[in-house]
Design goal:
ETF_a/b_N; 7-stranded parallel β-sheet; 8 helices; FAD; ETF_a/FixB; 27% helix; transport; electron transfer activity; binds flavin-adenine dinucleotide
Length: 317
């Protein structure tokens, strides 16, 4: 028995969500009294051995550059093979875009039970009971995985990254990438931006900002906070902002430490994508705006007056 944690990466670097998954997987292994190992497909510039500080003893690597672009079918076949080779019984993913695409496919290949979007360590005293958020994080469900191999994906930002001492041993796995049914022909990067799903702080704008020409006010606030920009759906639908910035039920689901919503009413479909944020700040001129009910801090007032003042104050910190 062992726990295997999938290490996701992009542009040669390990994603922050994977550090959470490693810490979580190591904690699951400790609970079960079994070793924890990481699994990396492809190559990264980061020091793999240093990942031992998150509590894992070994990194299994399939060191083939063909794995550097995500192909869910190719990945799931390779990961299933790695599980069989290493004899892992618990497989942990981050519930990010990669985990969402790959974890269920791997589970199907291994005939394993899968719980996606876990928010806490499993209760191993009464089986392998995993708590997960459901109904757009409006409720929680507890699911017991009874299969021999168990697959869990962890909601980003729901488990604290903890680093201690230690280095991991690197073990090369001879896994040949399968021929994919799709081929990546080009990758268009949106440069200079923090990816929304990895962002610690998000500054988000809605229709209350009146038009795309006013987004400079949000950019001014986002810069000193090193924040990513987001928007409500009508803003993206009106082409004020690109669609990859649209958050909510039908957009990106985010869980930053701080979500600042400016001129957004707080419709249930918007909240569905942001209500896992640790702290929500709402700026809205309507004191009855529904978003205030979900807010930790609220400012009632005109965004065009508040934003410059807020930005100036934040720059002083
Ligand atoms: P509005 O509802 O127009 O609100 C604008 C807000 O700005 C108001 O609260 C107003 O008081 C405030 N305001 C105006 N002027 C100022 C000012 N000067 N200063 C400060 N505040 C000001 N929406 C999403 O966002 N994400 C989704 O994923 C999503 N999915 C959907 C799926 C379905 C099936 C459906 C039916 C809808 C979905 N929607 C989604 C749309 C959602 O229902 C709302 O219509 C939308 O979120 C409203 O966007 P908004 O808050 O920017 O605009």
């Amino acid at each position: 028995m062992s726990v295997l944690i999938f290490i996701d990466h992009a542009d040669g670097h390990i994603k922050k969500a994977s550090l959470e998954a490693l810490t979580y997987g190591a904690a699951v292994a400790k609970q079960l009294g079994v070793p924890a190992a990481g699994l990396l497909l492809g190559t990264v510039q980061d020091d793999l051995a240093a990942l031992g500080k998150y509590g894992i003893s070994t990194i299994h690597q399939a060191n083939n550059e063909a794995f550097n672009h995500l192909d869910a079918q190719v990945y799931s076949k390779a990961i299933a093979e790695a599980v069989t080779t290493t004899g892992a019984t618990v497989l942990v993913f981050s519930h990010n875009q990669t985990g969402k695409a790959v974890a269920p496919r791997v589970a199907a290949r291994l005939k394993a039970g899968v719980v996606t979007g876990a928010v806490a360590l499993p209760d191993t005293a009464s089986g392998f009971v995993v708590k997960k958020s459901v109904f757009s994080a409006k409720a929680f469900a507890k699911v017991n995985i009874t299969s021999a191999i168990k697959v869990v994906s962890l909601n980003p930002n729901s488990f604290k990254i903890e680093a201690g001492e230690g280095t991991a041993t690197i073990n090369q796995l001879a896994i040949t990438p399968a021929a994919g049914a799709v081929k990546v022909t080009a990758v268009n990067k949106v440069s200079g931006e923090v990816p929304l799903t990895e962002a610690e702080v998000i500054v988000s704008g809605g229709r209350g900002l009146k038009g795309p020409e006013n987004w400079g006010l949000l950019e001014d606030l986002a810069r000193p906070l090193h924040a990513a920009l987001a928007c409500s759906r009508p803003v993206a639908d009106s082409h004020w902002r690109p669609h990859h910035e649209h958050v909510g039920q039908t957009g990106v689901q985010v869980a930053p430490n701080l979500y600042i919503a400016v001129g957004i009413s707080g419709a249930i479909q918007h909240l569905a994508g942001v209500n896992r944020s640790k702290v929500i700040v709402v700026i809205n001129k309507d004191p009855e705006a529904p978003f205030f009910k979900a807010a930790d801090y609220g400012i009632v007032g005109d965004a065009f007056e508040i934003l410059p003042k807020l930005t100036e104050e934040i720059k002083k910190i």
